[in-house]
Amino acid sequence: ERLDEASHSNRIISTYNQAEDNINVVVRVRPLNHKEIKGRDISVIQFPGNGQVLVEHLPNGGSAHKSKLFSYNVVFEPAATQEDVLQFSGIKRLIEMAVQGFRCTAFCYGQTGSGKTHTLTGPPRLFDRKKPSYSDAHGLVFRSFMYLFKLLDEKSDVNFILKASFLEIYNEKVIDLLNPGSARKPLAVRWSKKARGFFVENLFTVDCEELDDLTAVLEEGMRNRSVGSHNMNDYSSRSHTILTVHITSEQPAENGVFISRSGKINFVDLAGSEMTKKTQSEGKTLEEANNINKSLMVLGYCIASLSDRRRNNHIPYRDSQLTKLLADSLAGNGVTLMIACISPAMSNLSETINTLRYAARAKRIRTKPIVLMDPREALILTLKREVNVLQSENEHL
Ligand code: ADP
Ligand code: MG
């Protein structure tokens, strides 16, 4: 009873700061579900405020009272709405930065059933063909699309080109969710010298002129995700999806030249975090982990390596498809938002603590964002500098 009080508190969101860091970590706690309530499961999560999560429990039914306190940028309590997550998670800053030419990633991490897909896309019924296009249940991706278009409408002097793609990584195979035929013939991930990053060969990228086009990409991908899987939950707990919006802007500069910038934002729905432990507990090497979930393990290594700056260690982006595709935003070109999803239930305690620890480690990442400049723009800046030098030389004559 004492533990349950927290869920009746009327605070919904608690914030430590709206940090300007290059990685922000927020936690979303889902409500207890019907099954848990019926089974007399209780909440072990309390919310002391200031972006803190307190986990209270009596280990092994004993009387020793144990509690653990974790801190994040923002904590969303069970009563927080989908709109709250848009407004307060920091995602709006990522969208703004993607428009300015940065590469940004928002990912949901957590055990199966903790609310990752709910947070990103909302309940599956939204993607039935007959359903209305808007609902309170819509998740962060759809809301981000709306915010993106609002931003673009405000910048009528700039010409924007939007493209979107939606892929799935299952057992290290990349499948195009906009081209279900690719399930039989997985796509290759290659390095591009020109783009200075990895890309997926032959991935459909759809031109999106309006909000409906982006929404269609989301809907089509969500429908294709479940195709061919007998047990949707088992399948989605082992696969990652990445929906990417590429934003290229062209702004007229002096002398009829255009300044072009390309940013992007990835929305990543990760495999269930319990998969990592399953791999490790079966004593498999990284190579053997392939069959279960290599990408999730390597993401953990990459995040751990990034946080530990004293050890000048090699960051193993190339070791998994997921980290290859996220390398550009994790490694220093952008901003990352991690949304750690947890269940409040006593029965999920050990996975919840794993997620809270993983999330707390990720917060130590410090990367330095840089704008990706088009070669033409770099040239313009060089020319401008030269003109300035010549002008000041003239003034001194
Ligand atoms: P995951 O993708 O992490 O496996 P889901 O997003 O599918 O988990 O969530 C599991 C179940 O819990 C779904 O039925 C979902 O609708 C529900 N759920 C998750 N988060 C919330 C929330 N914040 N509010 C209400 N229901 C939620
Ligand atoms: Mg899911």
From TrEMBL:
Keywords: ATP-binding, Cytoplasm, Cytoskeleton, Microtubule, Motor protein, Nucleotide-binding. It comes from the Eukaryota. Residues 22-365 form the Kinesin motor domain. GO terms for biological process: microtubule-based movement; mitotic spindle organization; spindle elongation. One of its GO terms (molecular function) is microtubule binding. It is found in: Cytoplasm, Cytoskeleton. One of its GO terms (cellular component) is microtubule associated complex. ATP binds at residues 110-117. Belongs to the TRAFAC class myosin-kinesin ATPase superfamily. Kinesin family. This is Kinesin-like protein. The chain holds residues 83 to 479 of 768 of the full protein.
